[in-house]
Amino acid sequence: MPLDLEQWTDFFILVGTGSATLAGLVFVALTINLRGVAHDATHRYRAINMLTGFASIFLLSALALMGRQPAVALGVEWLVVAALALAINTYGYVQAFRLRSSLYALTLIRIVGGSLCYLAQLVGAVLLICGIGVGTTVGAIAVVATFVYLISGSWLLILGTITTADAPVADSPIAGAQKEPHRGP
C-alpha cells in the first residue's frame, strides 16, 4: 500500500510555519543582543545551531509539501536535510567546548539530546526510503522532539547572553573591545 503524504499536510504546515516564525524571533533576539552573542563562543554556536535547526524543519516542511512526489523522494530529502543539520549541530557543540568560553548550559545531556533528535529523523528518513510507511511517523515524532529541543535551546541562548554579558571572553572576535557604559533608561 503506497504512503499517502497528503494526510501529513497539516502537520508540515504547522511545524514549517512554527519554525519559520521562531527562527525570525530568534534572529530578532540575537540582533538586540548581538554583542553578547559575538563575545561568547557558546552563544555564537548555539545561535547557529538554533537557526539551522529551525531552518532545517522549515526546509523539510517545504519539501514535504511539494505536490506529487513519492515517499522515497521525501525520504531522501529528509535524510539530506537532517544529516546536514546534525553535522552543523555537532560541529557547533564541539567548537563551543573547544573554545571554552562561558559554557552556559552546555551539557552532555543537551548535546546527546539534540543529536538523538536528528538521528531519529535520519531513522525515519531511511524507513521512508525503504518504503516502510511508519518512517513518516518516526520522523514526525523526531521533528516535534527537535522542535522542543530548539525552543529550549533558544531560551538558553537568550538567558545565557544576559547572564554572561558582562564577563570578558578572550576568544571573542571583538576581544579587547571596551564595553560601553550604561547611560540610563
Written overview of the protein:
- This protein has 185 residues and is mainly α.
- It has one domain (5-163).
- The chain has 6 helices and no strands.
- Helix 1 packs antiparallel against helix 3 (41-64) and helix 3 packs antiparallel against helix 4.
- The radius of gyration is 18 Å and the shape is elongated.
Q: Measured on Cα atoms, how large is the radius of gyration?
A: 18 Å
Strand content: under 5%
Mean pLDDT: 86
Q: Which structural category do the helix and sheet elements fall into?
A: mainly alpha
State the low-pLDDT regions, or none: 174-185
Largest sheet: none
The share of residues in helices is: over 70%
* E-strand count: 0
Total count of domains: 1
Shape summary: elongated
List the total number of helices: 6
| String of helices and strands | HHHHHH
The oligomerization state is single chain
Distance between the termini: 65 Å
Short description:
The protein is mainly α and 185 residues long. It has 6 helices and no strands.
Furnish the topology, listing elements before pairings:
Blueprint: H1 9-32, H2 34-38, H3 41-64, H4 71-99, H5 108-129, H6 134-163
Helix pairs in contact: 1-3, 1-6, 3-4, 3-6, 4-5, 5-6
